[in-house]
Amino acid sequence: MDKVMESFIGKQLVANLFNDKGVFVLPALTLLSAEHIRLINQHKITLESHDVVQLDSAEFFQLAIDDCTAAIENIFEQIRHNKNKRIPMLEVRNEVIPFIQQVSEKNDFYGVLAALQSKDDYTYRHNVAVGILSTLLGKWLKLKPEDLSMLTIAATLHDIGKMRIPDELLTRPGPLTAEEYQLMKKHTTYGYEMIRDTIGTNHLQALVALQHHERMDGSGYPFGVLGNRITDFSKIVAVADVFHAMTSDRFYRKASPLYEVLLQMEESVFGKLDPYICRVFINKLMQSMIGNEVELTDGRTGKIIMILATDPLRPLVNIDDDFIDLSKHRSIGIVRVIPH
Q1: Which Gene3D superfamilies match (predicted)?
Q2: Residue 16 belongs to what H/E stretch?
Q3: What is the pLDDT of residue 266?
């Protein structure tokens, strides 16, 4: 793919696209992926700058994540109604993964988080969210490009086994009975089998579906294995999975405030989640908060100026002409981050 055509990836088509024989190729407002560019090249169409529009970050994230969620819903529903439960990997690779990679490349955590806030499609949006957050985390952990690509697919398919769970359980507004919860937990083994039996995937990716609810202290499911038997990919996806679940509105509870979630995740480091992976995640999220206003427990508001690597959840805060180091004033904490 030449550099000029590559530069159109992530931009939006202004009008319907036809080839020189009048054959319809792509509809107006399509957000162009690498796969679309390949299709345009096959039709020997040359795009000009006036054929596309550059979206601002917020519009791009919203459109990319909405498109991605719609594609995941379509793919997952195909699987739900297909007797052999085969995963259409070609569609996953062409219609979902390129958008997740594009969104991750922007490295704008707050833009991503705003677009991920669940509408009424949590079941599908959650898979996109975990795909994006795991990819960002994989980058922060400096994974090799080939491992990062493998992780993106594994993370996006981590909950695929839920397509073998009755829909009424997935959308139940109240708590599940003990018997229903046991059935729900089977999505891990179902997902493992489905990915294992799909051509174009590997055993590491299948293990992510199996292990993303396992915990370092052995308190997770389906097998209650200890941390030394959980793969690194599964540990990364577990952090992304927990974070998105806690920061999203669900059928049965409202989202928790972001800072409260980070505090709970830091507490989970001691036993539940991998401490190194979780610390990198919290650190990067807090770094992205520099410049944000925060409300403190004493009622004052200030701006985050600096994050301390040793204690990222207790930053240096500027209030008027005063600077408060929350790591030294431990009686004061952050109640919430005030969005821009």
Answers
A1: Hypothetical protein af1432 (1.10.3210.10)
A2: none
A3: 86
Nearest to 155 by CA among 35, 216, 58, 72: 72
Q: Which sign does the torsion angle of CA 42, 43, 49, 53 carry? A: negative
Paired with 319 in beta bridges are: 322
CA 282, distance to chain mean position in Å, is 15
Task: Provide the 3-class DSSP secondary structure of residue 328.
Answer: coil
Given a cut of 70, the residues of the chain with pLDDT beneath it are: 1, 118-120, 251-252, 270, 339-340
Question: pLDDT, tens digit, for every residue of 32-72?
Answer: 887 888 899 999 999 999 999 988 888 888 888 988 999 99
119 burial level (CB within 10 Å; 0-12, 13-18, 19+): exposed
SS3 of 315, please? Answer: coil
Q: Is 218 left (phi over 0), alpha (psi -120 to 50) or beta?
A: left
Q: Which two tokens stand for residue 208?
A: 């992510």
The helix, strand and coil proportions of the chain, stated in percent and rounded to the nearest 5, come to: 50, 10, 40
Task: Report the distance separating Cα 254 and Cα 159, nearest Å.
Answer: 21
Q: Helices (DSSP H) in the chain: which residue ranges?
A: 3-6, 34-42, 57-80, 89-91, 97-106, 109-116, 122-140, 145-156, 167-170, 178-185, 187-196, 203-211, 232-246, 258-268, 275-287
To the nearest 10 degrees (0 to 180), the angle between helices 57-80 and 109-116 is 50
Q: Is 134 exposed, middle or buried (0-12, 13-18, 19+ CB in 10 A)?
A: buried
Cβ atoms 277, 236 nearer than 8 A? yes
121 is written with which tokens?
Answer: 């499609």
Strand partners for 336: 295
Q: Which pLDDT score is estimated for 106?
A: 78
